[in-house]
Amino acid sequence: MTNVEISKVLEEIGTMLELKGENPFKVRAYERAARELETQNESVEDLVADGRLEELPGIGKALVEKITELVTTGRLKYYEDLRATIPEGLFEMLHIPGFGPKKVNAVFSKMGISSLEELEGAAKEGRLSSLEGFGKKTEAKVLEGLESMKQRVGLRRLGEVLPVAEEIVAALARCAAVNRVCYAGSLRRMKEVVKDIDILASSDEPETVMDLFVGLPVVSQVVAKGSTKSSVLLNLGIACDLRVVPEESFAAAMQYFTGSKDHNVHLRGLAKDLGYKVNEYGVFRGEERIPCATEEEIYELLGLQYIPPEMREDTGEIHLAAAGTIPRLIEATDLVGMLHCHTRWSDGRNSVEELARAVQERGYQYLAICDHSQSSYIANGLTVERLQQQWKEIDDVNRNFRGFHILKGIESDIRSDGSLDYPEEILEQLDLVVGSVHQSLNMPAEQMTSRLVTALSNPHLHILGHPTMRLLLEREPSAFDMEAVIEAAALYGKILELNANYYRLDLNWLHCKLAKSRGVKMAINTDAHDLEGLDHIRYGIGTARRGWLTKEDVVNCLGLDDLRALVGR
Hints:
Helix content is 43%, strand content 15%. By secondary structure, it is α/β, with parallel strands linked by helices.
């Protein structure tokens, strides 16, 4: 088992103990152990084999026994027995925003509520507010959260779905009967959440292609199988459709099944005005098919510049294409630096040098290490003393590099009053300061707006991190006036982060468009806590392209000297 898998089991034990109302110290012990193992660079299996597990902070004899059982057998009886005592509905309640284990335990132990349906009924009848510590506001938030959960049913995050779609496309592409194959739909438009996968292939042997598709290892159930369309359910729990068309229809089908409904309606209306008919089968003038081998040829035939898939939402892109002013959207190769990554100094999983090597190997010229600041106790935030120790390590590691540089940064908590987490004499020594809100996320909108604007006015802040504080399909954005925040960023010359972690993708694409229109620069940051997280940059690039961003809009497309000049360092 990997360190992350072992850590997850311990974390779940802590959650289950809290659901049962167990001693808080026992709960914290499992949570601390989970964090310790997750941030260990050395394999837990090796630590167990060498008898060194007990040397780790917070890992006592009882935990050593449980972790050893888990590592050596792949199972943990204590975990399984504990899980069997807790109704499944209690775990489902944990997905309600702001409804943590303590509240779940309260409704279960005091009211006998063990399902979402029972919880909704109690909230609608006003019975929840009778519990100590709940009240009418909690009741309203529960109902709001339950409604939000209903709307999220069947949705998956982009970063969960895209790799699976690429795996399917790659498998089909290896088939000799397939001419061309690609995923389409909202996935090709890089939407942050998707409800299904649409795949399109061209072939003269559709039955052969369909046989391969329905037999793929990622398929859990065949819903329908035909010669032109098959539908399956994937192991991921999401539906996937494959359409097989003749080669002459592939370009038109790709355009049709990629664009949003509004984009396609607008395009078909334009085509009709020009005497054409455009559908998934092709482009026609009367009964005559107009040969179009690519989407570019289709748009050109209609007098339009090619519109990249990510822009096809009917938010003005067709007017730009008619004028020939579609911008050259940002590409992954335009980025030359990573500006917000975490190491083992806080809650990351790699050392400074390991992270830097991995960033350099991916072709970047610089890295800003921005570990958590001292107020983030749960994330092992850096005190002033530890921060200064990290600076020394960064200096030492920098001496081993040529053509690559590590910047000394921090992800400073933005306190409730908008102030940052270190004294001025520390902040001014940092190369880059990312300011983020991690606590008191639900304060009133007016207060949160003031908090963010105050932070943006601080001369030591360079980048506002994950501005809306949302977690996709888990936590709604905090309430505040986004336009006021963007105007403040423009006024004070600050940078807004587009956090590429696929749980965040924050700012969203519409906010990117708004910020761009106000002349505000952005940074596409991975917020990586491990080496795999560095590769999530592509989800940020996809969101940036949806927001019409170019390399000129993004500060980590600048060389190191130009970036330093921009942030006054």
